């Protein structure tokens, strides 16, 4: 007893996340199990209202995610590494891509590979078109739902997590994605709420997938004659076997269990796909794959923005397929994003986005073409419409489809094996991710915590299967996708803000004040670096060093026949040397006493130059052409003289070039200003 008590005291759970999550999970399971009909009806009404009235939120959100990631690929931020600048990827490219599939949508490829194209092909909403048009559109819509848009959703969450975790050294949790906005508050209640949402969403997504997947596995085993029914007893055995292997895989770690199973399943899936390709209508499939890619590219933007507002007859289909898919992918994004981030250290942003968007999408397109178009071809030629008539039986459709190929028993067995391993890899990576969220990315957790999540998944999935409450849980998961889509947009804002700071930090050149530095007067330089100035000290520097330099230079200009004047202004103090011109822009070199905010971390740091408050003052230059200035607090009088002469030489060089007349010609600006109702220069 004492050993058991000691075991449970040794945990890395964060109570602020785990306790509210378990309360909510158990509450939802309770009402879904004991009041399945009423709960399903109520949540169905809510979902229908959201899909009908707020479908544009999903459409715009997903569109934004696609455009945002494409922007990052082609932007200056694309070369930033997810980790230290010299970080190397932890996994080989093949292992990385294999695990992407395992966590992302591997099981869905098996479940919908035949069911979705056949459903679109036979849907009453498209009966007005020819059979060929319906076949092409079935492939197009399947591509749309399983292509770039779906992976962009996963990519936004995965990239945000990987960036803030490996670049900013923050915990691998959703709260970290809000760091640029919330700063230190991410470690408080706000962060716990965000991670609680992520944990519940992940748990519900895996539970519903496990529950519905068990039904398909059961149907396949019946088809093979290995079991003689679809009763609850058989489902209990299937769940126990899946979760036992999943727990063993999860406790062995990413580098062993998850990695091995993911690679094994990709190889098995490739063999299965090639079997259908070469035994089926090969020439037709390869040709339709090429046409399908072209059709998808041609219709990309129309599909992306289309809400079918002018086609009320198609909108029910649109809500139950496209919007449901967007909601489903968004609801899975915390889980898949966390897993993708975990395995993506060392990749550049450009490599991450390119691989996540293109490689899985290309594979999905090939997979859906081979299975979906084979099914449609068979339905039109050999099956006499039988597959279309079974469109509502998604659990059985894949196995009925395989009956039209040689050795259906062998191919069905291979399909069951792939489905089984996909379930295991989804469950074991899900266990790993849930424990990661619950512990706020603790460095090392006891293995019993992984066992705990696996057992809880299995128990609640069986409870919901037996009570018929899985539909309620799935519906509620889809509803929660609406607020999470808004959260994901905030991720994008936060990520962009972090990237801007990151890029500026690593590309910042040395201060102009260091241009003149040598080993001479180094102690004075050091004293200046170690001190923070108030307004009065900077004003004294300007009056004692800057003004004499500008006065001396103005006197020399005047002796040379060039009129130059020095102007002084108070509050805030400004000094400027101006040479006025009639036909070209005036030359101005000025210095103002400007305040500058200091980071809280620097103020509170013991082993750094001391600062009493979050503000210091610096003498900062400004110019007549509105260029950004720079700090000259370390300049001597002679260095200020040299700096003014450098700027004046630049001014003369630019003014002498014909191509720069548009910037230097004051007459042209006068005409433009007068056209705008202003006579000021």
From TrEMBL:
Keywords: Cell membrane, Membrane, Transmembrane, Transmembrane helix, Transport
Tree of life domain: Bacteria
Main location: membrane
Keyword Lyase recorded: no
InterPro entries, A to Z: BCCT_transptr (IPR000060)
Molecular function in Gene Ontology: transmembrane transporter activity
Family to which the UniProt record says this protein belongs: Belongs to the BCCT transporter (TC 2.A.15) family.
PANTHER family the UniProt entry points to: HIGH-AFFINITY CHOLINE TRANSPORT PROTEIN, HIGH-AFFINITY CHOLINE TRANSPORT PROTEIN-RELATED
Protein name: Choline/glycine/proline betaine transport protein
Organism listed in the record: Arcticibacter pallidicorallinus
